[in-house]
Specification:
155 residues, alpha+beta, Glutaredoxin, 2 domains, four-stranded mixed β-sheet, 4 strands, elongated
């Protein structure tokens, strides 16, 4: 269920429409909207002269780009080696139970979204999650309940 938004042409102000600007353009679009809406992808394709299929090929190659909105509280569960060994799967499952969604989903109210990531770079603090840009270290299922229990997020 993609939101319809009018494309903001100011996004193009710092660009000349060259193909080598695709990644920075897509980053700017996602920074503005929080994801890559289909209308924006069409505008970027037109602006750069790249076919839509090639543009989608570029955007899907990089894990940083997303095609649907994320929740206000975006939860990333690290599944790197250190976190995996220390129970990342149990942490993810506890979050799913507490928040009421599975990996890759967004709550109906748009409050939470959940994804796993290869590594968040806090291996010595494993297992870790990141909520928006805040790392939660040495996670346990009890900590998950205190952070996400009853839909409340302590900040």
């Amino acid at each position: 269920m993609e939101e319809t938004a009018t494309f903001d042409l100011k996004i193009f102000e710092d660009f000349s429409g060259q193909k080598d600007e695709l990644i920075p353009l897509l980053q700017k679009v996602q920074g503005h909207y929080g994801y890559l809406p289909s209308e924006a992808m069409e505008k970027v394709a037109d602006f750069t002269g790249v076919t839509k299929s090639n543009l989608y090929g570029v955007a899907t190659f990089y894990a940083q780009f997303r095609f649907s909105p994320i929740g206000k509280e975006h939860i990333m569960v690290c599944r790197g080696t250190a976190c995996h060994v220390k129970g990342a799967e149990n942490i993810k499952e506890a979050i799913e139970r507490n928040v009421g969604i599975k990996e890759g989903e967004v709550t109906p109210d748009g409050k939470y979204s959940l994804e796993t990531v290869a590594c968040i770079g806090c291996c010595s603090l494993a297992p870790c999650i990141m909520v928006n840009k805040k790392v939660q270290a040495k996670m346990t299922t009890k900590k998950v309940s205190s952070i996400f229990g009853k839909g409340e997020n302590s900040e």
